[in-house]
Write a structure and sequence with these properties.
The chain has about 325 residues and is of the alpha/beta class. It has one domain: Vaccinia Virus protein VP39 (Rossmann fold). It is built from 7 helices and 13 strands. The strands form 3 sheets. It has a 9-stranded mixed β-sheet, with helices on both faces. Strands 5-6 form a two-stranded antiparallel sheet. A two-stranded antiparallel ribbon has the order 12-13. Strand 5 and strand 6 form a beta hairpin. Helix 4 packs across helix 5 and helix 5 runs parallel beside helix 6. The radius of gyration is 20 Å and the shape is globular. It binds S-adenosylmethionine (SAM).
């Protein structure tokens, strides 16, 4: 991609829209049926610095307004991925995916997966088990939707396994392009020593969003994050030559998102590579270094495909 054309309000000719303000205002100025993927982590209503704490009913009503607008701007073959944790009220847990599901259902959205995002670090609880996962609700607008599974396959556990009898005896028994990653994803969350850490308190790891972008959109499709924060979804989209839109109420976070894009243009934005295994203190494997993003290199992620090509059994034996 040559220089990224960044606009501060929605414009079809932009590569990237960084809107400073309320997402509902931005959404109201966008056309119907445009965006291929809407991926976001909304405020959880747990008293973070950027949110006012509302009663649960009021919170859900606010969410309904945003979700209704998201459904309107969503392309007919598009997807919404709403990533949430729990609302905690005086120590009692309310899983947000459970209370948000009826809103999507009432708007005609169809649930495709309830993806468990599992991570190893977080607060240590003393009166219950420590929380180590959050949820991504993946909905589509219709039954026909973009889904490029080959772009996100992961290595098979036993890639060299062959049929030992029958008409396919001697042939590889598993897909040489890798396996479907399933619906439980182990991705480290962005804590203090993560290579992508900014001042934002709850950033998406870019690799989490890359998997959604690669599988649910095609090049030059639009990707939208109505609660953009530090711009991780926007970065994941631009890396793969998609157009992106983010809205954010806090001016410092909008600046941070812009800074991250400029850094990716210069070639010095570091992100955790998709193919790096989760740290295992007992293993002495190779440590895959952070990936330096350079948007001028032309976007699409080479590493995953390179890894798959190395791994691929096609052409062997
Ligand atoms: C959970 S954080 C998202 C973090 C983001 N995923 C990232 O990678 O940095 C939610 C963000 O939504 C922003 N926000 C809250 N209400 C908003 C609104 N009405 N419109 C736009 N942004 C909003 C907050 O300031 C916060 O940065």
């Amino acid at each position: 991609m040559s220089k990224v054309k960044i606009s501060s309000k929605f414009e079809r000719s932009a590569d990237c829209v960084l809107y400073h303000g309320d997402c509902l205002t931005m959404l109201s100025g966008m056309p119907d049926n445009l965006v291929k993927l809407i991926v976001t982590s909304p405020p959880y209503n747990i008293g973070k610095s950027y949110e006012k704490t509302l009663g649960l009913g009021e919170y859900l009503e606010e969410q309904r307004k945003v979700i209704r607008e998201c459904v309107r701007v969503l392309h007919d073959k598009g997807s919404i991925c709403w990533q949430v944790g729990n609302y905690v009220n005086k120590g009692e847990f309310i899983p947000l995916d459970i209370v948000l599901y009826p809103i999507f259902d009432s708007l005609g959205m169809r649930l495709r997966n309830r993806i468990i995002w599992h991570f190893g670090h977080g607060l240590h609880a003393s009166k219950r088990f420590s929380g180590r996962y959050e949820v991504i609700l993946w909905f589509t607008k219709g039954n026909e939707y973009t889904f490029n599974i080959d772009a996100v396959r992961v290595p098979q556990k036993y890639p060299n396994k062959k049929y030992f009898k029958g008409p396919r005896k001697g042939q590889f028994s598993c897909n040489p392009l890798g396996k479907n990653p399933g619906d439980v994803w182990e991705v480290p969350n962005v804590k203090a020593n993560h290579v992508e850490k900014t001042l934002h308190p709850c950033q998406f790891p870019v690799e989490l969003i890359e998997r959604l972008v690669l599988s649910m959109t095609d090049e030059r499709d639009w990707v939208l994050d109505p609660f953009m924060g530090s711009g991780s979804s926007v970065i994941a989209a631009l890396i793969h030559n998609r157009k992106s839109i983010g809205a954010e109420v806090m001016p410092d976070y909008v600046k941070m998102a812009r800074q991250r894009i400029l850094s990716a243009e210069k070639g010095d934005l570091r992100i955790r590579p998709l193919e790096r295994p989760v740290h295992d203190p007992n293993a002495h494997g190779t440590n895959i270094p952070p990936r330096l993003i350079n948007l001028k290199d032309g976007g699409a992620q080479p590493e995953l495909f390179e890894t798959l090509a190395k791994y691929s059994t096609r052409g062997r034996g």
